[in-house]
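Reopening this one. Same input as before:
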Amino acid sequence: KDTRFEKYLSTDDVYMNSDITPIVKVQRLHWEGNNLIVKGYSFLKYLNTDKKTRINAILVDKFDLKRVSLSTKLRKDRNITQMHGGGKQEYLFKRYVNYDYSSFEIEIDICNSDVKSMLNDDCLLKLVIENAGHKEECYIKNPVKGYKARPKDRIVDNIAYSVDYDKFWRLNLTSSEIGGRIENIILTDSTMEINGYTTSLKYREVCLK
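Same output, byte for byte:
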């Protein structure tokens, strides 16, 4: 007896809600003055993106009790669909899912009073993704290889602002004060020599006030 049968499944049958998970990648971090610029992409797996897709970034403490909203721009990038949209490799322009609207750019002003206060302790970055009736939060993590996602520290008014990644590869931001001590001052007719040292082994510069 022939028991074969055929059924055509709809998208709803194949992609269950439990499969719609956030995907995130950090592509580049760099300083523009006192602003840290974070670039990357994030999307909800299996959901097409469009101009209505929303991505917002927030700075959170390590316990996720305090939050500060950050300036976030959504950008169109077809390369993300090419990388993650599925489909056969030989058909580069035929992908199962459209992730064009998943590229983000975040601007963090370290001189902003709310941000500065948060960075007294270790902080993380989170994304809030809204698409097709779904809303998910995820940490910004998974940097690309190399130096592009690992900028040097920025020193402002004797405070060093650092970017690092924890053991889960989540982006971590923090600040530390650079202290200094003057041991003696030698005055001559035309010069003043100041001798002292910084209290940090990592940083060799300190602004005397």
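So the earlier flakiness isn't reproducible anymore. For the record, Confidence is low (pLDDT under 50) at residues 11-15.
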